[in-house]
Amino acid sequence: MSVPSSPRRHRQVLAGVASATVAAAAAVFVSAAPAAAATTTLYASPSGSGTTCSASQPCSLTEAQNAVRSRNAAMSGDIVVELADGVYRLSAPFRLTAADSGNNGYTVTWRAAASARPVISGARAVTGWSLVDSGKNIWRANVPAGLDSRQLYVNGAVATRARTAVNRADFTFTTSGLRFSNSALSYLNNLGNQNRVEVESVGSFTDRYSPVQSISGNFLTMQQPAWNNNTFGFDTLSQPHRAGPFYLTNAYEFLDAPGEWYLNPGSGQLNYIPLAGQNMSNVSVELPQLQSLVNVGGTYDAPAHHISFSGITFTGTSWLGPSSSNGFADQQTGAHITGTWARPADALTSCQAGCPQFEATRPHWNQMPAAVQVSAANTITFSDSQFVNLGQTAIGIGNDANAHASGVGLGTSNITVTRSEIARNSAGGIVVGGVRADAHHPADQRMVNRNITISNNRVHDLGLEYRGVVSILTTYVSTALVSHNEVYNMPYTGLSVGYGWGANDAGGSNHYANRGLYNYQPRYTTATTASNNQVIGNYVHDVMQQMTDGGCIYTLSANPGATINENYCLRTNGWFGLYFDEGSRYYTARNNVFSATGTWATANYWYAENMGNFTVTNNWSTNGSTNVTNGDRGNVVSGNVTVTNNNWPSGAQAVMAAAGVQGTNPPAQGVQIVGVQSGRCAEIGGSSTTNGTQAQLWDCTGAANQRWTQTASRQLMVYGTKCLDASGQGTSNGTQVVIWDCNGQANQQWNVNANGTITGVQSGLCLDASGAGTANGTKLILWACNGGSNQQWNLRS
């Protein structure tokens, strides 16, 4: 696929309309504290104790919280809790309510101390590994009996639960389970711990898990209600719209490949097969103990408010919902069915593409609870932080009550997530809003989610285990601003706005009347809460990598005043650029760039008669394919340009250059890039300045040939003029990593990621010490990211 030729992308501050919009939003959302206010600073550390909370005698997180509560009633200045370096391991979620809030216009801030990188973790470190099966190279460590988890993080990457890929055609589906006749599968009858085995089915836009009850006589009896809920409706486990991978997971007997693991909670035995180059005496292994980390929220009468977090890494969770008898009956973007529902006796034939009984479930779908939860809250900010290695949605803002540990959902306003990285998590990045009736037609106006800002974040490598998710989803929200984020490496859609397929909009939908939905919920006569939402200046690339029926930017239902402007969409694996799905209405899309996508703009008019009123003007695309036409259904479509041979007009180049993250953390200056496995530095041998000289490992000396500077264009520069470069713009395994005159091209742009990897923007491959070598002179190359410690790096001053 072609790569645009604009050499300097995504770094400069966007001039004009979008920046003015962002500035205006900031002016609305940020209120200045009174002048000459005195700040109170408290200090915490992972080993802190006592109640002094001073720099010389720091306290624990819990005591710091108590200290805030003793001081915040009559605040005359901000209260800052400085977190020292290290890992704060939680035994229970950290919950902040109205009692923890700032008052009198001041803020309570939890932030990293200078040069510190505090980590709030819900996991325990696992050590004491021993080899128990030399033939399969299985290693084992003991953990507390009764501890269960669906995730294990090894060297900063999620490992794979033991699984085996099976052929869907080898199984016959029944109302109680799966029958097989292939003799090669007869060993399944003898599996141990059979009620922990699961079936995973990857479909078109759903990724479903259904637990087994028992296996005998070549029959898998499945747990209920998970089996019933997964085998009726749309894109079902039994008849997906697209038949993707089909796995049996979570049995010790499936443990047969490097990087796989299996936990037996009864015995407390954790088993793992190391990847090539991993030494179990020094590998970092984290086993989650908590299902959420931070819960911010009060009640509608007493919300949490004026709280901020800065410079913190949030990590180490596992959501156990799919391990229950409900399994994970995925419907869309993490919403799922739980509980027992009536269904036709012949559902396996009559309800594989919807039926009236299935519609009874729709108003009652649950949302996936996030690792960091915010509800019944206002004026909350997360900045300059990382949300990594989380077993579910990373951040949930104003979701339905079922997704919040507080039991109170919705009700968020003036919430900001900015200048942060959200990466390498099992599900999606940020979900704002709920999907049930109180989200779209609230019984109490204090439930409305409004004024949410998500800006200047890097959101990538998500959906590792729940693939039907997006990076940022806003459902029923008023005045959300999703701006200048970079989104990439997603299995499904990039950004998503709206929910409900138009069924909950004013007047409803005849299509859903025909389906029978309104036998189970009202046909509303008033508009939903979704309005005035903006998607501006985002850089979305390399999405739709595994799933189908999605695109770069996806919409559902009416959204008066919604704008999708000045975004840059690149590579959607043949799927859509801009996808107006069912019920979409009143969206404006201007000045967007669509490169290497499928149909650049499509509207799913097939079943949704209440669609249209789109304004789609002055966009650029590398193809002219669209069914969104001027005059049809009230649409205004004009000025859209098809670009060939990368001959982008200046206006498109300006959008491409400005899209994505703007001015985040100060780039690292003169740092050493130190290999985690080797302890040696990335350098240019012999202090050569010749173009094409390959980078290598060497003992760290601090010399100029080992000092690297990150530029605003994501280059890694040495000597002030030479950049780390994927030789020949290579994108294949083994491509040499060399130096070359800095030119701003994508093969000289690098992402320094939260999990310690450094990935090429153009290739997506990892900076790799060749052959897992650790000796002086080991050459640096590009290789597919695999979690090996030879692909992990620390930046050290």
Would you mind describing this structure in some detail?
The protein has 797 residues and is mostly beta strands. Among the domains are: 124-288, no CATH class; 672-796, Trefoil (Acidic Fibroblast Growth Factor, subunit A) (Trefoil), CATH 2.80.10.50. Helices cover 7% and strands 32% of the residues. It is built from eight helices and 65 strands. It has a 13-stranded parallel β-sheet with strand order 1-2-5-24-29-32-35-38-41-44-47-50-52, with helices on both faces. Strands 3-6-25-30-33-36-39-42-45-48-51-53 form a twelve-stranded parallel β-sheet, with helices on one face. It is globular, with a radius of gyration of 26 Å. The protein starts with 16 loop residues before the first helix and ends with a strand. Mean pLDDT is 93; it is low at 1-36. Residues 1-37 form the signal peptide. Pfam families: Ricin_B_lectin (PF00652). Residues 669-796 form the Ricin B lectin domain. This is RICIN domain-containing protein.
